[in-house]
Amino acid sequence: MTLAGHRSFASAWKTLLARSTSPRLAWIATRASFLSLLLYFVLRPENYGLTPNALDPVFYTGYATNLDDLLRGVGQHHYFVSRWSAYLPGHVFTEIFGASAGRLVLRLVLCTSILTVVWRFGRRWKWTVGQELLAGTVLVTMPMFARAFFTDYTEYVVVSYGIVLLSLCLRTRQSWWSVTAIGVLGALMLVANPLALTVIGAPMVVAAVFGARSFIGRVSIAFGIGASLVATLGAGLLLFRWHYGIANVYQPTIDFMRNPPGPDPLRSPRNDWVVRFTWLYGPPLLMSAYLLFAWVRRVRLDRTELTALGLCACQYAYQWYDQIVRRGDGLEISYYWSFMYPAYGLLLLVAVGRASSGVRNSRLFAAGVLWLALLVFGVPSALRFPTGLGFFTLLLAALGVAVAMARRTVFAAAMVVLGVLGWTQVGAPPYDPRAYHPFNMSPYYDQVYRQAGSPSEQLHAEVVWFEEQMDRVPHDELASFVPAGNQSIIVIAIYAPHVVNRVIERKAAPTHMVVRALSAREPGMPLVIAVLGRPGDVAKATKGLAGVADIGEPVLDVTHSSALRSRLVVYVIDDSDYLPFAWTADVLTRNVGVLDGTVLHVAAADPVGQMTPGPVLPLDAGTYLATLRYSSAAPEGTGVGRFWVAGPEGPTVDATLIGTGGADSTISLMFTVEVDGTIWQFPSERSIAEEVDIQSVTLEEL
């Protein structure tokens, strides 16, 4: 770089620093933070919005608050690890402020950033402070935004980063810092969810086309966006390779996209919800009102307004395309529908700003109070929208009334449209799909506000408590979990055992519980079993476990005094203390025969060959004795089959199964394990068509 180039680069940084520390920007950010706090305490939004899918957001809460344990225990077994832009900010704020306060402080920072950027965006129209407050309030309190914003799922990244990105893309002229910010934000959204490409693609094109006057300038913008996007992706790759030892943090997502799963089980087989999810029709109402108001007022829209309208229309069309043509979930599931909000919210912001131009601050304040009252008090059941034709008739009537009012006063007309937009979310008709589908995909927009102490907040408190307790347990990242009711199947997602086969069904036989835990045990590591749930159910599960294995006393036995009031009992069993242990036939994998209680009965007519392939489990170094208990109707002394021990190098020792004349008998095999953590197997097979009963396989360390 030349000396002139160095000076130019230094000058650019000096300019950016001066702008970012200017008194005007500091004053805007201060107002934004105060408004964010005021709205939070007035509306009291649900702090941990888990609907409609309560499980997936907790996985991301886990990565934010329990990152090291998840990276050790889960690693790259799921694409969750790829989405670092969703959980790393939460992890940083958790480390500084704690799990509960940290996620709220993060959202305060995000909301402050959103308001600061969009208020600067409104300077081109010379918005007054009253306009800024009203437009900003509507933008960040719309239930569609708040529901997504207060979850830990990736949708919070899409709605928050997306609004900022679109605001920057619609600048009349781009600068090097705005181009860089667009690329960085786009990369962070893509990392959070690759489907965010549908949100950022068109705005980036707009930024390149309208952000400069010359062809070279447009190419430079496109190159700058691409370079900063790639640099951000590369920074994440290097961070996880250097600090966490993960070679390619994006590989799980790449694999997932190459081999996507089948149809989404959350997708309804019928489309009844289309006429009940009234919020789906907010964007076309807003766009129609905007254009009709301009027509009746004979107002010429500027390029920014037309672009905002175009982006909203394109995104809305894509959401329907995804749902109907691609057979996706772009409309039905709220965390995909939230992809609509950056374009929808920005158009709403511009519309409120345009309609409130020249209006006295007292009227703007009154409109803001009415809007907040609608959100706080909601809609009486009798005034909820009807379904089907009745709803669309009312929607068109409201639009007609607003257009007629706009001839005299555009602000009042705009407030009518705004009220209807809010009504479509908090006053939607009842929705109960239980007659035809097990899942309720309603996002419950009418339950976003005044929900302090809601069940989802209690669940978050339980999650935080559970993690704090588990951190007292050695090797908690390798635990197997027995969920015993009380939403414990969701709470344990903080450790993501669902994706590494460490969830054990409580209603299974106690022997099977231990077998499942053994199969998930890491080489050379102790066996850790955690039971969580309703105190009574936990007591039953632990009693059953103690009855089948010498698991000793629990290292932890605590009950939460608040939230869901769950009990947690954890056992840590070092080395082979759980031995001797007997696998009854009902918990073994079976190739032939039928179960008679805990005994596998193989009839003479069944095929010959392997009867039971296992058990299969890792063993530490030592000398062991494996015993098969069985009986056979074949005459005594007749060779019936074989029982053997197979190590990593193949069969080690074996013995012949002989006829017992129907009496019970045992075969014992002694073997030596040389290396910790190697996998051993104890199969049995039948070589002739004689009746055999397999009762159990017992393993003990000598």
In DSSP terms, counting alpha (H) and pi (I) runs of 4 or more, how many helices? 24
Structural class: alpha+beta
Sheet having the most strands: 6 strands, antiparallel
Radius of gyration: 31 Å
Roughly how many Å apart are the termini? 73 Å
Describe this entry's structure for a reader:
- This protein has 702 residues and is α+β, with helices and mostly antiparallel strands.
- Helices cover 50% and strands 14% of the residues.
- It has 24 helices and 16 strands.
- The strands form four sheets. Strands 5, 6, 7, 10, 13 and 16 form a six-stranded antiparallel sheet that branches. A four-stranded mixed sheet has the order 1-2-4-3, sandwiched between helices.
- The longest helix has 29 residues.
- The N terminus is likely disordered.
Brief overview:
The chain is of the alpha+beta class and 702 residues long. Helices cover 50% and strands 14% of the residues. Strands 5, 6, 7, 10, 13 and 16 form a six-stranded antiparallel beta sheet that branches. The chain has a four-stranded mixed beta sheet with strand order 1-2-4-3, sandwiched between helices. It has a four-stranded antiparallel beta sheet with strand order 8-15-11-12, with no helix packed on it.
Set out the fold topology.
Blueprint: H1 3-20, H2 23-43, H3 56-65, H4 67-73, H5 84-97, H6 99-121, H7 129-141, H8 143-149, H9 155-169, H10 176-192, H11 197-210, H12 215-243, H13 251-258, H14 282-296, H15 303-324, H16 334-337, H17 341-355, H18 361-377, H19 389-406, H20 410-426, H21 455-470, E1 480-484, H22 488-491, H23 510-519, E2 527-533, H24 535-548, E3 556-559, E4 567-573, E5 581-584, E6 594-596, E7 599-602, E8 609-612, E9 616-619, E10 622-632, E11 639-647, E12 650-658, E13 664-673, E14 678-681, E15 684-686, E16 692-701
Parallel strand pairs: 1-2
Antiparallel strand pairs: 2-4, 3-4, 5-16, 6-7, 7-16, 8-15, 9-14, 10-13, 10-16, 11-12, 11-15
